[in-house]
Amino acid sequence: MSQNGFLNRFRGSEAASGLAMISPTAVYAVLMLAGPLTAVLLYSILTKGASGIEWNFTLANYAEVWSSPIYRSIMLRSLTVSFSVTVVTVVVAYPIAYFVSFHVAPSRKSIWLFLITIPFWTSYLIRVFLWKVILGYNGVFSSGLEGLGITDGPMSFMTNATGAMIVTLAHAYAPFAILPIFVALEKIDRSFLEAGQDLGETRLRTFWRVTLPLSMSGVIAAVLIVFIPTIGDYVTPDLIGSGKFPMIANVIEVQLLKLDNKALGSALAVSAMFIVAVVSVIFLLLNRRFLGAAK
Amino acid sequence: MNPRPDMIEFQDVHKYYGDYHALRGITATIKAGEFFSLLGPSGCGKTTLLRTIAGFEGISSGAVMIDGKNMAGVPANVRPTNMVFQSYAIFPHLTVEQNVGFGLRKDPMSKDQKARAVAEALEMVGLKGYGARAAHALSGGQRQRVALARALILKPKVLLLDEPLSALDKKMREQMQVELIRLQRQVGITFILVTHDQEEALVMSDRIAVMFEGEIAQLADPETLYRRPNSKKVADFIGTMNFLPARIVSEAGGMVEVEAQGFGAMTLTTEQCAAAGADKAGAMVGFRPETLTILFDGQTATDRETMGTVAEVVYYGDMTYYDVKLDGTEVPMRLSMRNVFGRPVLDLGTRTRIAWSPGALVLFR
To answer: Are B121 and B160 in contact (CB under 8 A)?
Structure first.
C-alpha cells in the first residue's frame, strides 16, 4: 500500500513531469553517449586476444600508451595544432565580434551574424578540399604570389602540413568563436566604457582594463569550443596532411578500426580524453576570476 | 563672501541628432562650488547637456567652457569632470577598492598613499571596511556610494550626477539627498545634478535650470522658482499650482489691476507677473495650495476672505489636502492645510471661509 501511495505521489509530482519531458533526450544520451563511453572505458582495461577482446583485466594498454614515444609525439602534435588553432581563431574572431557588437547599428547586427555564418553552411569536407585548392601545388595562393612576382614558379603550401591544418581548422571554427565573444561583448553595459574614459583612461586603456576582462567569459567559451573539437579532429589531418601527419584521433581510428585493437585504441581514447579534460580545467581555473565577475 | 567665479559656461549651445534639435541655444553660467540642478521632463535635453560637459556628447555649435577653458575637442578622459552614472557603472569584475582606485592609475602617489586615499574616500561615503567586497555583491545604495567615492577621489572641478537617485526607493532617496548635500558642502566641488524629480531639485540645489524641449525655461534659486515661476509650464512642473481665469483691467506705474474669477478685483505688482510664456487663452492667476487658508471657527482673515465648498478631502496624516470650489468658480482648487491636534478634518460639502492675499498670487498672461 505504502508503495502504491508513493507511486501515486510520484506520478503527480513536478519531478515526474520533468523526467517525462527530458526522457527522450535522456534515453538518447544514455544510449549514444554514456553507453559507448562505458564500453570504451571497459575495453581500455581488457586484453586484445587473437580473435577480439578477452576478459583479462590489465593496465598494460595504458602503460603502452603513456610510455610509447610515438603516441607521445602524436599527442604533442595534436595539442600543438589545437593550441595554435585556438589562438589563431580567437585572435581573429575577437576583432570581428568587437566590430559587430560595437560598430554595427543594432538593427543590422543580426544580418551581420547571418552573413558571418553563411560560409559554414557548406559541408566541411568541401571546405577542406577548397583549402587544398587554395594552398596546394600551383594553387590559388601559389599562382597569386607568382603573378605578383614575389615567387617564381609554382609551389605548394601544403608541405608545411601543420601550418595548412591550422589555417583550415581556424577557418572552420571561426564562427563558433565569434558567437560567444559577440554575446559577451553585447552584455557589457556601454556606460562602463564611458566610466572608464571619465575616470581618465584612453579608449585603448579602457578596452584593456574594462572591455577585455568583461568579455573574458566569451573568450573562454570560445577557447573551449574550439580547442576540444579540434583536438579530436581526424578529417583534416587525413585530407590536408594526406595521412602523413596523423593527430591523436587518426591513431585511435587506426587502432580501433584498421588494426582491430579495441583495447589499445580505447586506452588511447581515454588518455586523450583525460588530457583534454585536464587542459580544459586549467583554462577554467586560470580565468575563474573573470568568469566569476561576469555574473 | 566674494562672488564665486564661473565654473561652467554654456555659450549658445546647439545640438542636433540628424534632424532632431536636442539643445536649442543653451546659454547659462554655473558658479564654482554651486549645487546646480538641470530639471525637466524626460526628453528635454537635460542629460544631453550634462554629457556635453563630460565630453561624451559633442555639440553642433556654440561653446562649453569649464573653468574658463573652451572644451571643444577635449576628450572625456582629460576633462576636469567626473560623473556618477545613472546605472552607477560599477565595474563588476573589480572589488570595491579597485573600483574606487580605478582612476588613480596614473597618479604619482605611492601604493600606500593610494590605498589610504581609497580608504578615506570610502569612509567619506560611509562605506568604511567595504573595500574588499566584490562589486556585484553590493546593494543599490552601496553602488551609488562607490560611484561617488570613485569620482570624488580624483578631486574633479565638477561632479556630474546623472539621475543618481532614480533607482533607489523613497526612504533611501531622501537619505541620499541629505548625504549628497552634506558631501557637497564638505568637498566644496561644483555638483551638477540631472533630475526629473522637482522635489529633489528643490531640496538639493542652490540654483535650478528648468528645461523644456531643449531650452532653459527658467534659471533661478528654488524659492524663486516655486514662488515666482515665469511661465505656466514651469509653474505646472514645479509643485502644484492652481489656476483661475482672470482679466487685466489696467496696467500703470508698476501696478496691474486684475479681475479674477473667485477672487474679484485686486491690484498686483508687475513683479508678480510671469514675464515669459504668453498664454493665448487669456490671463490666469495662479496660487500654491498652502497660500490659501481655510478659516476655522473664531479665526479671522488678515487680508482678504472668500467662501467655498469642500469637494474632496485627501488625508495625509500631517497634512490634509482639500479640493475646494470657491464661490463663483467652476473647478475645485487644491488647498493644503497642516493638521492641528484636536481640530477635526472637514467633511465633504462643508461650506467654509477661506483667507487669501493678493501678494501670494502670480499673474500669467
So the answer is: no
